[in-house]
Amino acid sequence: MELSSNDLNILLFISFVVFSSPYIAKLTSLPILAVEIILGSIAGAIGIITKTPAFTLASHIGFCYLMFIAGLEVSLKEFIKLNANELKKISLFYLILYALAISISLILKLSLVVAIIIPVMSIGLISILYKEYEITPKWLSFTMVLAALGEVISIVLITLLNSFSNSSSTMQVATSVLSILFFLGIFVVIYYIFNAIFWWLPWLKEILMPDYDKAERNVRLSLALWMLAVALMLYFDFEIALGAFLAGMFISSFFGHKKDLEHKLSSLGHPFLIPIFFVYVGLSLDFSLVNKELILMSFAIILTMLVCRIISSFVFYKDFKISCILLAFTSCMPLTLLIAIATLGMKLNLIDNSFYLALVLSSLIEAVIFMWAIPKISLLIETHKQKSK
Fold first, then answer.
1. Nearest to 327 by CA among 340, 312, 339
2. Of the ranges 7-21, 79-93, 255-269, which one carries the lowest mean pLDDT score?
3. Which of 4, 15, 144, 211 is buried deepest, with most CB atoms within 10 A?
């Protein structure tokens, strides 16, 4: 692929973003990725950078690696630990949440993608909340598991949506659904096979991922699994996000105890590959569409997502009392995944540019408001509990 002068400008601008975004984020109290999106949108608006084939390819790689990092934060072992009562309540929570989302989509005659967008969850920002507490609250630990399952559901639904959009007949749709279910079933079988292998041969883990190795075999194996999973998705014409996410889950499930590995893989993505994707997202924003109606639409999306979660969260009232509301607020920050679904919806022509921009703005506003509000709401609830005793 021949690089143009525009590609040189993009490379120089991304180097600026990679270096400066942490400092700007600290000054503005914004999440780093929000800063990266904003910088990309400003650069695009004034014509510093434009979309090129090389930039588009690099952004796809960045998105794929983002899903891989998201998978690293989810372990199948966390789901296996859940007891029958917890599984029942979690199932009821998601049943209510998706029923509300589908009802809203049908009543307002909106695209089916809205029914996927409203319940979407991601654990990326939730993990940052742990730093706000010396002792992790029970509701926060549970929300992490709840949102992790929600993230898996969201990724699968994205893949199904992509398959539906590419299918022209009922038979093709049915084949796509069965193929995805079969693929997920194979993944679960592979998990149990490797679980048995590592139980019988625990030393094999050390051979595959030694604690100290100059050749960085642990990183090489992880990246090889990531690329293999993406290749399989491309071969079967599935959404690549699913393969990247499952590859991350596999590593987290068997090698999650190696915290240095997660740090190494994240260090490759967050300062380099992932910013390229967020700058590209910012470049996709059309400032000419920003108006009062669009801002109101963004807040309407946020309010809808929050209300649906609050209603569903009362399933856990017996366990957490009024703190169940914190589950709703904490699970309402799907920043990266909301942008990912919006990007896919735009690519598949399921949403227009205005709604895409409203979703991106919603994700940024949610991240800023809820990350600030949750610790304060939590403190108010704890203070009220202490006074009641």
1. 312
2. 255-269
3. 144
